[in-house]
Design brief:
CATH topology of the largest domain: Rossmann fold
Number of strands: 18
Number of domains: 2
Largest sheet: 7 strands, mixed
Distance between the termini: 30 Å
Strand order of the largest sheet: 8-7-6-9-10-13-12
CATH architecture of the largest domain: 3-Layer(aba) Sandwich
Radius of gyration: 23 Å
Bound molecules: zinc ion
Mean pLDDT: 85
Structural class: alpha/beta
Length: about 450
């Protein structure tokens, strides 16, 4: 074990020491650490990704915690890079303000506010805002653009400071950061400190039920130390003076929930039937029990064997294989499925990734236009949650190519259609020319 990993021995939510390894995901390097050519000689360490289930509260979590300074201080991901998310935040701010009937000029605080995209949307709704984000450069840029942002991690101490300087918050938001935080107890105490008596804590996280149903195990990476369900979460919040009152399911990142909590002592909002219904469903499916995770892991292993069987047969026949999508999730997939040695290169649409090499295995990342030039026989869609838009884009590319005389001369484009069974919501896909493996 390295100096950069701390091993917890107790449940992050309830402190129990009864913990069972249910998902032995293979270790990987930091998923987002795509390296430039001049750093290829630096060895990238592998860190554990094993997931444990708490025998008392049923919370699924990673116990090996990589130093957050390594993970987040040089974070390069900016929300606005992802266009879909910016639009998502606009709708989010509008619906939260109107559904919760938040009066104008209230304080909205967001932890992990990144470049301030969501808070800008709240400013547009007439709110005062305060961001908190440990990535210094991003925090500074957000402040420069009119979204005051503290370059720090959210703690109870930081919460008290904000309350002292800017007053109580009507809304505290945490989008896709509640899975990142090791010391959740201190964060929950900070939220309680910061909230106005009728204030609301809104958070969006990947939902373990959707992760299981959609086979989204690749969102298990080192930044995500918790994989949340409502039952353990509600018990945890109650221990910290908070309680859930509503939940929405959103399609973000392969299936997420947006949950709403209030102060247990002073909150007046009624518990929604949606929340009660989803909690009953979790109970019915045994989401706090180990069996569902053991079954899930068996299904993941089965899928892995199918994928490797298919690829190895193709490789033995002399075919070439490339990957599509260079992101944090793809690193988990590459390592857990042991795909790295089978891929010649990875294509991606983000120019920031071009010319870099995948974490650890150092597979070159190239623009997706290279697919047309290099014509691999098989493209494994590593970013498979986005398989549909990727395929749609490639289809357009192919239609265009048909208009170019001679462009279809390669035999790759004349093979009969073939389909490949896949995971997730995209089940079968036919495409002339390319063989797509959606994983
Ligand atoms: Zn627990």
């Amino acid at each position: 074990m390295t100096e950069h990993v701390t091993r917890k021995s107790a449940c992050r939510l309830c402190g129990s020491r009864t913990l069972e390894l249910v998902l032995p995901i293979r270790p990987s390097p930091i998923g987002d650490a795509f390296v430039p050519a001049d750093r290829l000689d630096e060895k990238q360490e592998l860190y554990p990704l094993d997931c444990y289930l708490c025998g008392d509260c049923g919370h699924l979590q990673n116990l090996d915690v990589v130093d957050p300074d390594i993970l987040f201080r040089d974070y390069t991901y900016r929300t606005s890079v992802s266009l879909g998310l910016v639009e998502h935040f606009k709708t989010y701010a509008r619906s939260v303000v109107s559904d919760l009937a938040i009066p104008p000029d209230c304080l909205v605080v967001e932890m992990g506010s990144n470049d301030g995209s969501l808070l800008k949307a709240f400013q547009a709704e007439g709110m005062r805002v305060q961001g908190i984000d440990p990535a210094r450069d991003i925090a500074r840029a957000a402040t420069d653009q009119g979204v005051p942002t503290l370059p720090d991690f959210f703690t109870s101490q930081v919460a008290a400071k904000i309350r002292g300087e800017r007053g109580a918050a009507m809304l505290v938001c945490a989008n896709n950061v509640f899975a990142h935080i090791d010391n959740l107890a201190d964060v929950a105490d900070g939220i309680r400190t910061l909230l106005a008596p009728d204030g609301v804590f809104v958070f969006e996280v990947s939902y373990i039920v959707d992760m299981i149903d959609n086979m989204v195990f690749d969102t298990i990476y080192h930044e995500h130390v918790s994989h949340h369900a409502l039952l353990p979460m509600e018990a945890f919040l109650q221990r910290h003076g908070l309680t859930l009152f509503d939940v929405l399911r959103t399609g973000t990142k392969g299936g997420s929930i947006r949950a709403f909590a209030q102060l247990a002592a002073t909150g007046m909002r009624a518990t929604s039937s949606r929340l009660a219904g989803l909690m009953a469903e979790e109970l019915r499916r045994g989401i706090t029990r180990p069996e569902i995770y053991r079954d899930w892991f068996a299904a993941i292993e089965q899928r892995k064997q199918a994928v490797l069987g298919f690829l190895d047969q193709a490789l033995r026949a002399g075919k070439t294989v490339a990957g599509y999508g260079a992101s944090t999730t793809t690193t988990t997939l590459l390592y857990h499925f042991e795909l790295a040695s089978r891929l010649a290169f990875i294509a991606d649409d983000n120019p920031l990734k071009h010319g870099r090499f995948s974490p650890g295995a150092h597979i070159p990342v190239v623009p997706s236009s290279e697919l047309v030039k290099r014509k691999p026989d098989i493209v494994v869609i590593l970013a498979w949650v986005y398989a549909e838009p990727i395929i749609a884009r490639k289809r357009r590319l192919h239609r265009r190519r048909r208009h170019v005389p001679g462009a279809l001369a390669g035999t790759e484009y004349r093979r009969p259609q073939r389909s490949i069974a896949t995971v997730g919501r995209v089940n079968r896909f036919h495409c002339t020319g390319w063989e797509y493996l959606l994983e």
